[in-house]
Write a structure and sequence with these properties.
Layout lengths: L2 E3 L5 H12 L3 E3 L12 E2 L1 E3 L4 H16 L1 H7 L1 E4 L3 E5 L4 E5 L4 E2 L5 E2 L2 E6 L6 E3 L2 E5 L2 E5 L6 E5 L4 E3 L2 E4 L1 E10 L4 H21 L3 H17 L3
Antiparallel strand pairs: 1-14, 2-4, 3-7, 4-6, 5-17, 6-17, 7-15, 8-9, 10-14, 10-17, 11-16, 12-13, 12-15
Helix pairs in contact: 4-5
């Protein structure tokens, strides 16, 4: 399931993040790429040693915690620390699949990847995130503060930035529910349950859907 989520960040949070990134230290993006991805990765990213890194990551982590749509769709168990990437003119990230296992002492399995766009799409040309799907390639270039989440199993790339700068935060999630198809079923049931409650309140039908949702989560969740 590929899902776009608007307004992950408030305007104030977005302004604070972009202001911090304006004068921050960026390093070669190849430093965090797998051996095969290094050959196609051409961007820069905020240094992990930068003073602002921890604070910016905390801001986004809190935003994800309060976003009900993200929580319902992704079922996050562990979220890797965000990487803040910058693509200047001529930079790109060629076709690749994210590493299945990430991290050192506390590794996680990457189930879901996400890209949080941090600047306006009108401020740069190119830089689309292109994901290979069963319906063919789909390109995404979202408004600042909006996010796309997608299975880490997919082939994807970032098109060459022709003009301007593309700023984004990216990370990976180990979900409580490993299988994408099972996460989608749970998300659909949860969505139907919420709509039913809003329209009709707590009915016997609502209780049945709630029971089914809870029992499937109990069956599939890895805790």
């Amino acid at each position: 399931m590929i899902l776009t989520i608007e307004n992950i960040l408030s305007p104030e949070e977005l302004d604070a993040i972009t202001s911090e990134l304006k004068d921050a230290e960026f390093v070669d993006g190849k430093l965090t790429a797998g051996w095969f991805a290094k050959k196609v990765k051409n961007n820069t990213q905020l240094s992990g040693k930068a003073e602002a890194a921890r604070e910016l990551r905390t801001t986004i982590a809190k935003a994800l915690q309060r976003n009900r749509l993200f929580q319902a769709a992704v079922k996050p168990k562990i979220i890797r620390p965000m990487i803040f990437s910058c693509y200047s003119s001529g930079m790109y990230y060629g076709s690749h699949t994210d590493n299945a296992i990430m991290g050192g002492e506390k590794p996680i399995r990457s189930d879901v990847s996400f890209t949080l766009f941090l600047n306006s799409p009108s401020s740069y040309k190119g830089g689309e995130l292109v994901i290979d799907t069963s319906l063919g390639e789909q390109a995404f270039k979202l408004e600042a503060g909006s996010m796309i989440v997608y299975p880490s199993t997919t082939l994807h790339r970032v098109e060459t930035v022709v003009e301007g700068k593309r700023l984004a935060a990216v990370s990976w999630v180990q979900s409580f529910v490993r299988e994408p198809s099972e996460r989608e079923i749970l998300f659909d049931l949860d969505t139907a349950k919420q709509v039913m409650f809003q329209k009709h309140g707590k009915t016997p039908e609502f209780d049945l859907i709630s029971k089914t949702h809870a029992n499937l989560l109990r069956k599939w969740a890895e805790v």
